[in-house]
Amino acid sequence: MSKANLLHTDTNMKITLFSEVSVGISANTILFFARLCKLLGENRPKPIDLYIAFLSLTQLMLLITMGLIAVDMFMPWERWDSTTCQLLIYLHRLLRGLTLCATCLLNVLWTITLSPRSSCLTKFKHKSLHNISGAFLFFCVLYVSFSSHVLVSIIATPNLTSEDFVYVTHSCSLLPMSYSRENRFATLMAIRETFLISLMALSSGYMVALLWRHKKQVQYLHSTSLSSKASPEQRATRTILLLMSFFVVLYTLERLVFQSRLKFKDCSIFYFVHIIVSHSYATVSPFVFICTEKHIIKFWESTFGRIVNI
What's the confidence (pLDDT) of residue 280? Predict the structure, then answer.
């Protein structure tokens, strides 16, 4: 397995991947604890805060799992057994799916929350948390069932290597699937991801329309000397649109790299780039929340201020 050998010996790949994982874990940890403190300090927590906290926790667990897998790629001290391979790879696949699901539902929830009273979405505001939670539980069950084939497809890499086995990590390999079974799973994954991406696109388009209409209203009322400073709703809309645009760009790039990886099966470069791109959103997205929300910055400034004074 030439791919495994190159990954073990390439120091630049090792540094890049562990740097991405370390930065992502730190950023998601900061975001999660900031949101958790805000939730605990409020009598009636906002659904958006709850879902941002959940998204950051999911991404944190995803990056920790990726870190463990990376250790077996670059620093294989001892081989894992089949049970360890199955559990870690399955957990990683599941967390990646839940991250996509949580991002989509957060986008929908944000759209419902920011919609004006005259909008057709107003009737969903008072029960949006229950509806979104129910949808999320449904997708959890769906992702668990869709990823269940990993439990029987992943095995510990045998001592005698074979071209039939697909490299996953130093210790783990993927059993070859039949053409019909592979197509069936690929079709199910495509339907699932197309639905979620389409839902995000629709909600993002709706928010763009709201933002444009609000801008026109501000221009019309500008003569009344109203402040041209962006409102909290505008800043929130721009934040989620920035996140969704970044997500769509990375998702498209990941699909292109993945197809190239399938075409050039022995090329470790595409394998490595696919790993980096597929975890970039989980690493970068918490910085968008941290930099655009003042209460998080104030929270950490006060926290570090107390530590310095001690």
Answer: 93
